[in-house]
């Protein structure tokens, strides 16, 4: 009986998963372009420097060996970010703020629940992951990870490269970058992330006359356009890639990106 219930719950979870739409939350579409102040992401950079490890096409996080002191550093970073009202800053500063906050919260969620096999195991009984749980309060508003990605980042910036920037702590996800995002390095880092992912097997796997793309290109097809537009995007970062006429399959590995 327990096995049957577990199987039904697993089936429900996978079938219930659907990528949220990009829907602007107007409250956050405000900026002060005259503000030349920068937001420090030093504590987040310290965390990345110590615990992010490259193995082949993956960057893995060493969740198991983070020290109490370094976890306090991460917590300090999150406290600093909660005290900031990003609307007081330039849009370029805001973008880095939201991406780094999203990624830091995701790491914190895994640390708080470690050891686990997959982030999809978190959340409520009928939830597929923690993305709809309120995880932070910014400028008086309680936010979920889905709010940050789909109601702020995607609709305000309309940049498909955002999908290479936010990390869901899974092997199938574009890599967590070793550098914290800043207003200055944003475009360079986004292109680096896109290049790495599109030239990896988890991004595009070509075998014989078949091609397997990351499910990201299926879930968020609206951000990449039709198939011709998608391949134009992909060829920008993988020039030898040719337009494909056959069937395309999609895959995604939800296993934890652990060291």
Automatic annotation (TrEMBL):
Residues 1-18 form the signal peptide. InterPro entries: DUF547. This is DUF547 domain-containing protein. Residues 87-198 form the DUF547 domain. It comes from the Bacteria. It comes from Aliivibrio sifiae. Pfam families: DUF547. Keywords: Signal.
């Amino acid at each position: 009986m327990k096995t049957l219930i577990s199987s039904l719950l697993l089936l429900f979870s996978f079938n219930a998963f659907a990528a949220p739409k990009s829907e602007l939350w107007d409250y956050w579409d405000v900026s002060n372009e005259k503000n030349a102040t920068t937001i420090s992401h030093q504590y987040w950079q310290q965390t990345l420097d110590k615990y992010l490890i490259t193995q082949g096409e993956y960057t893995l996080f060493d969740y198991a060996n983070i020290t109490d002191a370094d976890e306090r550093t991460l917590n300090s970073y999150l406290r600093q970010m909660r005290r900031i009202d990003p609307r007081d800053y330039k849009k370029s500063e805001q973008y880095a703020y939201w991406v780094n906050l999203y990624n830091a919260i995701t790491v914190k969620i895994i640390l708080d629940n470690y050891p686990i096999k997959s982030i999809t195991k978190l959340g409520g009984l009928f939830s597929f992951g923690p993305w709809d749980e309120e995880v932070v309060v910014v400028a008086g508003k309680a936010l979920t990870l889905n709010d940050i990605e789909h109601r702020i980042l995607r609709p305000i910036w309309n940049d498909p490269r955002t999908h290479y920037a936010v990390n869901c702590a899974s092997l199938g996800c574009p890599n967590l970058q070793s550098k914290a995002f800043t207003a200055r390095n944003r475009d360079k880092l986004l292109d680096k992330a896109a290049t790495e992912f599109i030239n990896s097997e988890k991004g595009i796997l070509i075998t014989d006359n078949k091609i397997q793309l990351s499910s990201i290109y299926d879930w968020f097809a609206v951000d990449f356009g039709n198939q011709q537009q998608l391949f134009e995007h992909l060829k920008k970062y993988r020039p030898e890639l040719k337009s494909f006429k056959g069937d395309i399959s999609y895959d995604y590995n939800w296993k934890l990106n652990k060291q």
